[in-house]
From TrEMBL:
PROSITE patterns, per the entry: CYTOCHROME_P450
Positions that bind heme: 440
Family note: Belongs to the cytochrome P450 family.
Membrane as UniProt keyword: yes
Source species: Pinctada imbricata (Atlantic pearl-oyster)
Signal peptide: none
GO molecular function annotation: heme binding; iron ion binding; monooxygenase activity; oxidoreductase activity, acting on paired donors, with incorporation or reduction of molecular oxygen
Protein's name in the database: Uncharacterized protein
């Protein structure tokens, strides 16, 4: 062994120690920088290693704890995800409006793990691309178009009503409603009749969304899996890739079928839908969406267009089952204004004021998307004089905002009267679809569907809770129940 080799071998441990010390120093430096950015925002003390991750979890207790902190730390507070990862949690309407009023992009850290699934669609894109694509897609959700979907919402709901006629045991509501919303969304937005509600085996797309949502949450809470190199060598990483392939195949099939239809149908033979607009819309320079952009938007809306609506519907049915007096009052209102009418119209939907109040109160307590996030492109000045520095990652807990006792009287109570005409003092703090330029583009589509489905179910069925399986809310990208959402459904003769 040469002298040079011996010298190098002696230096290896020294170099290793120097490298480790350098990494520790960089961690300390980054932590100090984050602490400097958050100096004006007191919050719950973090553990030196795992931060606040053990107390602010995605289960119901963790979400309630964030709501408790909303009262303790006015406006916003920092949440540490480890020794060097931190974001600012906004929990008061004045702070939330400041965070959401601009067109700041989504927080890349929080959403980047979804890119292999939904690509760079409207949910994740930013800047000029987001602005352009948002403008191109907005006409698809105009009120005059949504009005025409009421009949489709009703016909899809009839399938569910017929299925429940033969049920003799508690039903897992979320699954049934997910099939309903997928069925109606595919008919309305993509012109595709899937018959997914009548399938004996869970629809592969529905199963795919369940699987990929759970896998993403598991990846988020495991820092080692944030590395793609490591993640895709794990069992979960391989499964995630398989599920994404299934979802993409489903989307590509829809696009392929529509392109084939274009070749054979006469122009003006039907009303254009969302997929038509994706395939034909042109910007001011005459450019349309690329094939990749079209698939990304289809994947985005296949997720956003049915899963969050299914959450809203399921939790509303749950609350009406829990509060029987509200359910009965809704039923009386429905009978008064609808009677036995089968052909439900847009005007019929608008007549049910108390039922709509119950829907809004349910979405206050159980917002379908409990958290949204942004990244500050510039300094953001808050009304109280504090400043959120440029580059800070921000999150808004809509769940905590809707339960903030500074805003809502007895926030844990289910009280539809909050949304009566005479009690709308807190309405500006109600944001289940977010606010600002990046609010949910499909909120009218979603709310109209909910306002059709809920009355149709209540008119035909009496709902009660299954006491043996109480709901356990948890945040899995959207708000679900950890153990399912079971209700007894009894047909009303």
């Amino acid at each position: 062994m040469t002298t040079l080799t011996i010298t190098i071998l002696k230096l290896v441990p020294v170099v290793g120690i120097v490298f480790i010390l350098y990494k520790i120093w960089k961690i300390i430096e980054r932590r100090q920088e984050y602490k400097r950015q958050m100096k004006d925002f007191p919050g719950p003390p973090p553990h030196w290693l795992w931060g606040n991750t053990k107390e602010l979890t995605g289960d119901y207790e963790g979400m309630l704890r964030v709501a408790d902190y909303a009262a303790q730390y006015h406006g916003a507070f920092p949440v540490w995800m480890g020794p060097t990862d931190v974001f600012l949690m906004a929990v008061h309407p004045t702070t939330v409006r400041s965070v959401l009023s601009g067109s700041d992009p989504k927080d890349e850290f929080s959403y980047a793990l979804m890119r292999p699934w939904i690509g760079d669609g409207l949910l994740l894109s930013k800047g000029r691309k987001w602005d352009r694509n948002r403008r191109l897609m907005t006409p698809a959700f105009h009120q005059e178009i949504i009005k025409n979907y009421v009949k489709t919402f009703a016909s899809s709901t009839e399938i569910l009503l017929d299925k429940w006629r033969t049920v003799n045991e508690p039903v897992e509501t979320f699954h049934h409603v997910s099939l309903l919303t997928l069925d109606s969304m595919m008919k309305c937005l993509f012109g595709h009749v899937s018959d997914c509600q009548n399938e004996k085996v869970r629809h592969p797309y529905i199963q795919g969304v369940y699987d990929v949502s759970e896998l993403i949450v598991k990846r988020i809470i495991n820092p080692l899996c944030h590395s793609a190199f490591i993640y895709y060598k794990t069992k979960n990483g391989k499964r995630f890739k398989e599920v994404c392939d299934i979802i993409h195949q489903h989307s590509q099939k829809l696009i392929r079928n529509r392109r084939q239809l274009f070749k054979t149908e006469e122009r003006g033979a039907r009303q254009p839908d969302f997929l038509d607009i994706l395939l034909t819309a042109k910007d001011s320079e005459g450019n349309g969406l690329t094939d990749q952009e079209i698939r990304d938007e289809v994947d985005t809306f296949m997720f956003e267009g049915h899963d969050s609506t299914a959450s809203s519907l399921s939790w509303c049915l749950y609350n009406l089952a829990k509060f029987s007096e509200c359910q009965e009052r809704c039923r009386e209102e429905i009978k008064e204004h609808w009677g036995n009418k089968e052909d439900i119209t847009w005007d019929d939907v608008k007549k049910l004021k108390y039922t709509h109040m119950c829907i809004k109160e349910s979405m206050r307590l159980y917002p379908p998307v409990p958290n949204v996030s942004r990244c500050a492109e510039n300094d953001i000045s808050l009304p109280d004089g504090r400043v959120i520095p440029k580059g800070v990652r921000m999150a808004v807990s809509l769940f905590a905002l809707h339960r903030n006792p500074e805003v809502w009287h007895e926030p844990e109570e289910f009280d539809p009267q909050r949304f009566s005409d005479e009690n709308m003092t807190s309405s500006s703090s109600y944001m289940p679809f977010s606010i600002g330029p990046r609010n949910c583009i499909g909120q009218l589509f979603a709310t109209t569907q909910i306002r059709v489905v809920i009355p149709m179910i209540i008119r035909k069925y009496n709902l009660t809770l299954d006491p043996s399986r109480p709901a356990q809310p948890e945040s899995m990208l959207i708000l679900r129940s950890k153990n399912g959402l079971y209700l007894n459904v009894k047909y009303i003769q």
